[in-house]
Amino acid sequence: MKKKWYILNIITRYEVDISNKIKNITNNKDIKVYNFIKKDIKIKNNKKYIYNRRLLPGYLIIYLKLDYLLLYKIKKINGVIGFLNERNNKLPIPLKYNEFKKFLKKNKKDRNIIKKGDDISINSGIFIGLIGKVEKIYKDKIEISIYIMGREVNLKIDKNKVNKI
Fold first, then answer.
1. 103 and 129: one domain?
2. Which domain holds residue 45?
């Protein structure tokens, strides 16, 4: 039997726990489980908060050799609702690799990539609410030009303190 991609429907917020349980019951190092959780940084009142953002809440994509015994074991895990494309008394229909590849590309694109010349607004600090233009990009900071009291001023600021307009 060949390995294939499957979509598993689960209870939201249990993505990490269920993916660990699947890895434990399979005892197979060749299994891949994608839970699509991305760490994001949010700044509120000049404090940095790190939180997990779920790109596909309530679903896992797994790559494994699925047989009836493994199907039974996975479905008995607390929090698992079932497989997508599941059929009565048969194995679920696997996901095609091309579909999975398209999905990965779609979720890897970061929509908040800042480039030179972009208009941005400052979301924290003493210049909160001001709008400027990106002049230079460094590793963790960017240099922007803003107008204060009728004069153009260049300012270096952290990338996570600005939003793209």
1. no
2. 4-108
